[in-house]
Design brief:
6-stranded mixed sheet; 6 strands; alpha/beta; Aminopeptidase; binds zinc ion; globular; 6 helices
């Protein structure tokens, strides 16, 4: 292949990927049954927590969310939309507004945790403080928590209530704290592709369980 031909085929592939990703759809519009907004927390000017060796929470959140998106492409009835696709800042409440606007069925926000004590580790899932145990958001949080803990073997810190921006979500919504970037070992795991992939698998499994086993 000539240099020029090679360049143009690379460009064609890139263009295809760009169009494909910008559609943000894992399923053709006619076969989509469920739309899920996956929100990689923070971004752009907001790094989120800063962990060991200066690792930024926003990077880990985005890496995991992108994996959830890619893995979702194998599920023709599911459309995963990312609240941000790159390192940009979007107000958290605007992300929720967008989910409301498009009528998403679920809202899953991905975050990583930090604490001043380096010994603290584990996974927790948060729901807005008004979402009781009988609510759909609480059920979503429980399923997410259970899948992530069993997939990763991380310490189970349970489902917790907090005042959260996702209170405006008109669909079941939960926020996952996938681990502590201030814990030496967990921070290392959270930066590895294989661990990120395990978490993404768990999130996708949880989403499917929630949607298909009401
Ligand atoms: Zn965060």
């Amino acid at each position: 292949m000539t240099q020029r031909l090679r360049m143009s085929s690379i460009l064609a592939v890139l263009l295809f990927l760009l169009v494909f990703l910008s559609l943000g759809a894992g399923c053709p519009t006619f076969s989509c049954r469920f739309t899920v907004m996956v929100d990689p927390g923070h971004g752009g000017k907001d790094p989120g927590a800063i962990g060991i060796n200066g690792v930024y929470e926003k990077k880990i959140n985005l890496a995991i969310a992108q994996m959830v998106y890619l893995k979702s492409l194998g599920h023709p009835e599911l459309r995963v939309i990312l609240a941000r696709r790159n390192d940009e800042y979007i107000y958290p409440t605007d992300r929720v507004k967008e989910a409301n606007r498009i009528g998403a069925d679920l809202y899953v926000s991905i975050h990583a945790n930090a604490y001043r004590q380096a010994s603290v580790s584990g996974v927790e899932t948060l729901v807005h403080e008004t979402q009781g145990r009988g609510s759909q958001s609480y059920r979503l949080a429980e399923i997410l928590q259970q899948h992530i803990v069993s997939q990763t073997g991380a310490r189970d810190r349970g489902v917790k209530w907090a005042p959260l921006f996702i209170r405006q979500a008109q669909m079941p919504a939960a926020l996952i704290e996938v681990g502590f970037i201030t814990h030496r070992f967990e921070a290392k795991l959270l930066q590895s592709l294989s661990y990120q992939s395990k978490i993404a698998d768990a999130i996708l499994d949880a989403i499917l369980e929630f949607l298909y086993k009401p």
